[in-house]
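An example makes the point: we print one protein in full, the chain in one-letter code, the fold tokenised, without further comment:
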Amino acid sequence: MNSLTIRLEKDSLFEKSQQIGLSYVLSYNPDRFLSSAYTALGKTPKAQTYGGWENRQIQGHMLGHYLSALSAFVQQTGNREAKEKLDYTVQCIKTIQRADGYFGGIPSTPFDEAFSGDFEVERFSLAHWWVPWYSLHKIFAGLLDAYTAGKNQDALAVVQKMANWAIAGTSKMSDTQMQKMLVCEHGGMCTVFADLYGITGQKKYLSEAERWIHHEIIDNAMQKIDALQGYHANTQIPKFIGIARLYELTGNEAYRTAAEFFFDTVTKKRSYVIGGNSKGEHFGRAGEEPLARDTAETCNTYNMLALAEHIFDWNKKSDVADFYENALYNHILASQAPDTGAKTYFVSLLPGFFKVYCTHDNAMWCCTGTGLENPARYNRFVAKIAENTIFLNLFIASQITTEDGWKLKIETDFPYSPSVRIKVLQAGKNGKTLKIRAPHWCTTLEAGKDGYADFGALSASTDIHLCLDMKLHVQKSRDSSEEHDKFSIKYGPIVLAADLGSENLPNDTVDDHLLYMQERAVSVAPIKENLTDVSSWIRIKDAQNLLFETADFVLKPFFATHHTRYTVYFSSTEHKNEMQNSGDFVEVGRQQSEIEHDGKSENTTIGYDNATDRNFRAFGAQSFIEYTMDFTTAKKIVLTAFKNDIGSFSLCIDNAAEYIVPLSSSGATGTIDLETDVPGEITGKHRLKISGTAAIRLSEIKLIQ
């Protein structure tokens, strides 16, 4: 009896957001999510597919997220329409699933080529397809969720047939070929087979799960080596969720070591104040918090919270719950527009920038998918139970029911009020004790070594009143220095943002999340105050809505900051924002930037330079890269290369005459910008093709006025 049912209290902060998320999910047509699968399997679709990423080689990933979201809403809210749509979708999948078990939003072509053992692979390309296993994993996971959370019995049979198809294919591959295939982003395929083993007990699924362990990444973590710099962040997190699940199934301590080391490394060395991580989707140097438009990919935090639940189950420590609270309030809750339900991809932490949200029908980013799921997951970590002890982790208005009949209610308007009341509504059959997390920001609860206050045995008359001392405080960034203070302002666990207004704010709900990567950020005035005495310069403006003010800013919870420019990072000196690009640019060797520019490459190798924290492509014999770029305002092309390389680049636009850009080695480390004029009167979008002499590396292409 170790499961809990948790229901959010009506009209509370998270329940309102959950209802917005539920309405958003229910507004989708399942036939449109199924459309690409019908086509891939040679059937006639019932409806036209959605746009954006669902019209690209990653088709089908949204179907998987849709299944997971519907399943979670069934489990957490009992919504009847969600259950009906879930059952309908699973039945359609069952009906058109291929005889050998394959089902997906794309043809099985890239998988068939991989199974042959003769295939090409890059970080985000397998057999010349964009992350096919990643896309397929979402459907695997969605079907598993449909069975476990959505109580659809057919889903298990469907997903087992898919799994058996995959095992039949990978059985033809050597371990070396398997590891080569795992170079390409593959989502949580390790977790899929681990979960299937946990459900069925069939050893073939455990054996397959362990074949999906990516040793390039996992082995370092097993040895407690931080080798994450330069890696795509959200490619790695699901690998450690898989390892965590394998530890629970096998007891292999090396798996636990890897998962815990990775979790600590990311949360304590590589995360921002809002709990998110990554810049440009990649891990940078440990101990740095670089500010940019493309920080804190929302998918990453979705997955880090899932990993946190595993870690907590093993050690019951409050620091895991502290991270969870911070990331849930300040990133996940902040990533959904409260007026429309639209989701963010990145949550920009560049001072003076704004959030960019997905359109309903024509975006379908990875974070649109996890964004469908997030509001249904608010309930998951409010409380956990182990060995007849209920651990209260989050101060969220809700009702908690145990399997043996205990009912507890959390009454609170936290964080708008510090008052929390926990009372027993009904006693259960077996004795229970209660532990309440003593947050690191709170001094009114006395905690044990685990960070929890022990309230002893529950009874029918238990009625606990708490007043959590929420205070304003400054949190300095990891890379703050005497020369340049960089800090954020929090009220208890809540990150406060300076609302900088919406004047000249462009439309922030778009099909293409990279649309505003060249948009200028407004300047942010420095705060030259005593950071150890915030009460002397921050005043309460509206206690009911948690509005504060300084001499220059109105501060509000970041989760309530939408459709406006803002900053959550301040400085005692003028902020120097990242270079303001006045035109299109490509980060060479980085997945999304290349994908969104229809990148094509022949005989180049993706790499990463630790010294400059930059990805690149290195050229080989008869190699080239090619992108579609917008030349509308461009007068010059700027190539960012490396000072210690020597050679030249050849450029041509739309297969016109080539022209040469030389690079002479200075022998120094670092990068160099090589400028060349845009030839003739060129405007609009054109194909830019670049080749280079052997071993020369290219990191970025910018178009400037």
Observations:
- The mean pLDDT is 95.
- Residues 629 and 685 are 5 Å apart (CA to CA).
- The longest helix spans residues 153-170.
- The chain is about 30% helix and 25% strand.
